[in-house]
Design a protein that fits this description.
It is a single chain. By secondary structure, this protein is mainly beta. The protein is about 10% helix and about 50% strand. Strands 1, 2, 3, 4, 5, 6, 7, 8, 9, 10 and 11 form an eleven-stranded mixed beta sheet that branches.
């Protein structure tokens, strides 16, 4: 009888332990909700921002002389990033000297109404596009830059771009 009680308690405790170790509160485990690794993220002056949506447009840029990508990231319905780069894997210095096939133009946007003061264009930094699959509409890469609006700067660091939807013009 004593052995049966001890065995019963052991089984109950084992079942509790197994059920606790197999449960998951994570939203990215088969629930359909994208995890942070599936979204564009960056730090703005040290504060982490995760974009709600990131899309891209592919087009032929006659000024640059080839195919180009414009990437748009939004947070709470407001566009926060606008990233321009050649449509091929590569490491592109973040300049705003114009559209070329060797540079990128990266912009942090505050969402305000003043196009001069609310847009922080890259003066320096890099865009490293590590995946550019135009067949499956997948872009991945990293970026960082110092954005300048002519009055002040913003530091964009630890940027990670994730795109799974590309519109073609």
């Amino acid at each position: 009888m004593k052995t049966t009680i001890i065995l019963g308690k052991s089984i109950v405790l084992s079942l509790i332990f197994i059920s606790l170790s197999c449960s998951s509160d994570s939203k990215d485990s088969n629930s359909g909700t994208p995890s942070a690794t599936d979204k564009t993220t960056f730090k703005l002056d040290g504060v982490l921002i995760t974009a709600d949506e990131t899309t891209a447009t592919l087009y032929t840029n006659p000024v640059a002389g080839g195919q180009y990508l414009d990437v748009y990231a939004t947070k709470d319905g407001v566009e926060v990033l606008e990233l321009h780069m050649p449509a091929s894997v590569g490491n592109y210095p973040a300049q705003r000297s114009g559209f070329t096939m060797t540079e990128s133009w990266l912009t942090y946007e505050t969402g305000g109404t003043d196009p001069m003061l609310d847009n922080f264009h890259s003066d320096s930094g890099t865009m490293d596009l590590t995946t550019c699959d135009l067949t499956t509409d997948e872009l991945r890469g990293t970026f960082n830059f110092i954005g300048n609006n002519g009055t002040t700067t913003k530091n964009i660091t630890e940027g990670k771009i994730v795109v799974s939807e590309i519109t073609r013009l």
